[in-house]
Amino acid sequence: MVATINPTIEFNFSSFDRNVNTTTTNGSAFSDNLDMVIRLALIVILFITMLSLGCTMEISKIKHHLTKPKGVAIAVGAQFGIMPLTAFCLAKLFQLGPMETLAVLICGCCPGGNLSNIFALALQGDMNLSVVMTTCSTALGLGMMPLLLYLYSQGFSNLVQYVPFTGITVALIMTLVPCGIGVLINYRVPQYSKIIIQVGLMLMLISCVVIGVLAGIFDGGKLFTVLSPQLIATAALMPLIGFTCGYILSTLFRMNAPGRRTVSVEVGCQNIQLCSTILKVAFPAEVIGQLYFFPILYMVFQIVEALFFIVLFRCIQKLSPSQKETQVHTAVERAAEETNGPSVTYEGTLQCL
After folding, report:
1. Do both 44 and 158 map to the same domain?
2. Which stretches of the chain score pLDDT less than 70?
3. How many angstroms separate the most distant Cα atoms in the chain?
4. Transmembrane region positions (predicted)?
């Protein structure tokens, strides 16, 4: 007996297959276009952010700190010493996967970001040191970041082959060019620097929300794969360890109080825009997946923890007497002692009487 297929049913199945293929093709094209938009947006945001960072730099201040490089040397050494080691140890501790480990290492090896300048200002730190440290870490990152990634990736089996050294170097050069343009603008036409800085900071904060919405549309529920307990713990601990170790190290080298607070926030704050751009642009989408959101998760904890330290610092300031009040009180006591004699002698005389 020979089985026959109804031509009408066969036609319906063929139409269904064509509709599924057409829908899949259209969805894939939309995803590719949206992915390209996110990549270009990250590059533009990185350019504007680094341009605004360059506008905060003054050549005279850079020269002044380079002639007395103790503070800068301590700060830069802490930046490229503490954070990469912290990222390496946390990846080992939580037993992260290869690509998760690489995302965490790239974030840990990045130079300092411009959010640290805002935090240093809020903590009444050394603003000149903050700006110069960000400048030096950005310039040194061109050599230090690939070197540190190569060294620390040796601690994981076959991880070094996944590191896109060429893409990372290109991204770092992309940061130096707008940064240099910003320095030139601040030197030639400083009246425009404040506008560029304000626009850059606003764009940096708004862009995180916009890119998050676009990526949510693009990736759907897959975005929550980044929010694994191990990655959340890593993103929370990295800035906290950076803030704490930066303060301890600067204290051991006997830096003054504003310098200690500055080194602390500079070590804990990473260049999130650079890290996100590297993860999104230097890696294929099917390899990196949604892990380019890890730097944004890091930034959230970085801001929350920095705000906690700022509030704590302000509370301590209000509860403790100010330095001026202490100096005035000491001067009044000395004047009274010179006029009436020491208070202890006076009390002893009363007791004798």
Report:
1. yes
2. 1-32, 34, 204, 208, 211-226, 321-353
3. 135
4. 36-59, 71-95, 101-123, 130-153, 165-187, 199-218, 230-253, 291-313
Q: Do 135 and 179 lie in a common domain?
A: yes
Q: Write out the residue range of the structural domain in which residue 163 sits.
A: 33-320
Number of domains observed in the structure of the chain = 2
CATH classification of the domain holding 82: 1.20.1530.20
CA dihedral sign, ordered 136, 142, 146, 147 = negative
**271: closest CA among 65, 81, 160, 116?**
116
Chain centroid to Cα 295, Å, comes to: 8
Count of other CB atoms within 10 angstroms of residue 115: 23
Q: Is 158 left (phi over 0), alpha (psi -120 to 50) or beta?
A: left
**pLDDT tens profile 215-268:** 666 555 555 566 788 999 999 999 999 999 999 999 998 888 998 999 999 899
Residue 236 pLDDT: 94
The CA-atom distances, in angstroms, between 336 and each of 266, 331, 353 are: 45, 9, 22
